[in-house]
Amino acid sequence: MQLSIFLLKKTTEGVMDKVAKMYVKPSASNKVYLMKKLFSMKMNEGSSIQDHVNEFNTIINQLCSVEIEFEDEIRALLILCSLLMI
Question: pTM for the full model?
């Protein structure tokens, strides 16, 4: 890999994007795994709502990195469905 590729980037985000495009190829199995993880997510009794939302956002961000994005309304419905029903 040539160092000049990285010298053209102005931020660490730019460098990370370049590295990801060079080496990370979203596979179908990875996409399916992440979607199953998101759709089957349930908040555990006694766990923190903040931890649950953080885990939800982590999965959403991982899906975005493999080019699967959801509209805000769908995200809201998914998080509501994942909350513990009392």
Answer: 0.67
